[in-house]
């Protein structure tokens, strides 16, 4: 668990530094104008997710390309969903915490298997080329995570409540124009978020207006 969290932290830090070091010479505030934003493309993707406290799983996502706020700076809102079994070690850790606060002997609480579901809403700021046949990109994102644990032993208890938390992501990817209106893209994303820091790989298809 700690190793996966460490890899996610290293990935986010590295990508953020790369993004921040991009060439911004010759750009002024006049180059950035929100009036240039508009609905440009819509994409759907399948993702493989490896999150802390959860087993590896697959999820789905959608995204909207709003175009360029300024030179090379693209705004991309997104939504995603995944669900995975909570690891045995994380379940046991939770059981031990409950036993300690309840002053019960070890092994008194058995939560069985738990499942974690994540709904994600956010937006990315991406550095990329405009109108290129092949366009690699780097970016950072801010996200809201809605996390919900489910299991027979916790249904109807305080552990069954949904948790809302914020996350920050670093990402690297590339798009390829297949035809006039179609793009295929692949992306690697690392996210820091309480109890669900994760690395995800996405493969998607976008329709461009």
Task: Tell me the layout of helices and strands.
Blueprint: H1 2-20, E1 41-51, E2 57-65, E3 68-70, E4 73-85, H2 88-101, E5 115-128, E6 134-150, E7 163-177, E8 182-193, E9 198-208
Antiparallel strand pairs: 1-2, 1-9, 2-4, 3-4, 4-5, 5-6, 6-7, 7-8, 8-9
Largest sheet report = 8 strands, antiparallel, barrel
Uncertain regions spanning at least 5 consecutive residues: 15-27
How helix-rich are the residues, as a percent range? 10-25%
Mean pLDDT equals 87
Q: Treating each run of at least 4 consecutive H or I residues as one helix, how many helices?
A: 2
β-strand number: 9
Radius of gyration: 20 Å
Find the CATH topology: Porin
Give a brief rundown of this model.
The protein is α+β, with helices and mostly antiparallel strands and 209 residues long.
Can you walk me through this structure?
This protein has helices spanning 2-20, 88-101; strands at residues 41-51, 57-65, 68-70, 73-85, 115-128, 134-150, 163-177, 182-193, 198-208. It has 209 residues and is an alpha+beta fold. The protein has one domain (2-20, 37-208): Porin, CATH 2.40.160.20. The protein has an 8-stranded antiparallel barrel. The model is unreliable at 15-27 (pLDDT under 50).
Properties at a glance:
single chain; 209 residues; alpha+beta; 2 helices; 16% helix
């Amino acid at each position: 668990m700690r190793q996966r969290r460490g890899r996610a932290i290293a990935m986010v830090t590295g990508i953020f530094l790369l993004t921040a070091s991009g060439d911004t010479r010759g750009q002024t505030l006049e180059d950035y104008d929100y009036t240039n934003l508009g609905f440009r493309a819509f994409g759907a993707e399948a993702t493989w997710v490896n999150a802390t406290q959860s087993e590896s799983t697959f999820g789905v996502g959608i995204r909207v390309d709003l175009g360029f706020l300024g030179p090379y700076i693209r705004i991309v809102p997104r939504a995603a969903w995944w669900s995975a079994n909570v690891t045995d070690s994380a379940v046991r850790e939770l059981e031990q915490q409950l036993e300690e606060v309840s002053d019960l002997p070890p092994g008194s609480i058995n939560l069985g298997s738990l499942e974690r579901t994540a709904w994600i809403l956010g937006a990315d700021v991406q550095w990329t080329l405009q109108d290129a046949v092949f366009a690699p990109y780097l970016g950072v994102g801010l996200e809201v995570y809605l996390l919900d644990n489910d299991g027979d032993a916790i249904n109807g208890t305080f552990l069954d409540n949904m948790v809302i938390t914020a996350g920050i992501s670093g990402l690297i990817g590339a798009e390829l124009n297949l035809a006039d209106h179609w793009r295929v893209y692949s992306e690697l994303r690392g996210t820091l978020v309480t109890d669900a820091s994760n690395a995800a790989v996405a493969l998607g298809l976008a329709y461009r207006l």
